[in-house]
Amino acid sequence: MTEAWRPDGEDERRGAVGPVRVRVPAKVNLHLGVGPLRRDGYHELNTVYHAISIYDELTARRGDTLALTMEGEGTGELALDDTNLVIRAAHALAGYAGVLPHARLHLRKQIPLAGGLAGGSADAAAALVACDALWGTGLSRDELAGIAADLGSDVPFLIYGGTALGTGRGEAVSPVLARPTSWHWVVAIADVGLSTPTAYRELDRLRDSGAAGAPLGSTDALLGALRQRDPRVLARTLGNDLQDAALAMRPALADTLKAGEAAGALAGIVSGSGPTCVFLAADAASAERIAAELTAAGVCREARVAHGPVAGARVG
Ligand code: C5P
Where on this chain does ATP bind (predicted)? Predict the structure, then answer.
């Protein structure tokens, strides 16, 4: 008798036998409108998320327990215990699907910690997608995004990627239909991160004292610009309500923003709660020049070029 044929990488248990590798992007907010503080401690948001080509990679292998190791950005600083969002994501999926949370997970980080690029949220999204494939739980993206919402406001977006509208506390995501244009970005990474809750608290303080700029309203202008192919039009519509807070906490970011614009960027904004600054470039060559000038000017730890939109957490 011949043995029953099984597709590559599967055995009698459900899921993959070999390692599952998932790549997940960083996000920037092209528009981050922050509304009032809610009773649950979150702020109502009106945001446009955009996934860019700076990636973390999570590899999941079969194991007898749940364990996480890492290399790259933040190694030695990031706790790898039950408080880590990757571990929390694996537990959340296992609980939802009714399977044992057993996996050996290895994270290769390129997204900086506490940078305003949703690195931790990206890793949680990667863990959901990787463990779903490893354990053969076969959930849809929408089901994974439902679990993701409990892990953090940005996690559902990183399951989908692309460009998307975020409402609620950011967890309610709907895709933005835009022309298939690739935008060119320069990402200026700072030496030391900023805490997201502290940035939101600082914004509340600035607003109470009347020192923060007027809240960003509608996303209409930005969504209109995304339907065109002209980066100069898009540049005029970028905005971030948390920028005043990030600048108050880290005044040197004003020099970074100025240096990017002096180097030829069409616009520069703080990404999310900062301190990373992102610059829109006219094209790929311009992005390379701006990155080189920002690095030479010493206004950031490192400047990287990136493009967007890109897909969310994906196997392969
Ligand atoms: O959702 P997440 O855990 O990523 O949020 C981190 C912190 O950022 C929250 O605890 C809260 O202080 C702040 N936040 C907020 N309003 C949001 C999202 C996050 O105040 N919409």
Answer: 112-122
Mean pLDDT of 88-99: 98
Residues contacting residue 62 through CB under 8 Å, at least 6 positions apart: 17, 102, 103, 104, 134
What is the overall mean pLDDT for the chain?
95
**Residue whose CA is at the smallest distance from ligand 1 atom 21:** 169
Whichever domain contains 226, its CATH number is 3.30.70.890
Q: Is 117 annotated as a binding residue?
A: yes
* Nearest-angstrom CA–CA distance, 257 and 261: 6
Does 140 share its domain with 225?
Answer: no
Residue 80, exposed/middle/buried by CB under 10 A (0-12, 13-18, 19+)? middle
- Contact 31 CB / ligand 1 (< 6 Å): no
- Whether 156 is in the pocket of ligand 1, judged by its Cβ within 6 Å, is no
Residue 2 corresponds to which amino acid?
A: T
**Which strand (E) or helix (H) includes residue 26?**
strand 20-37
Range of the domain at 100: 20-176
Strand partners, 10: 16
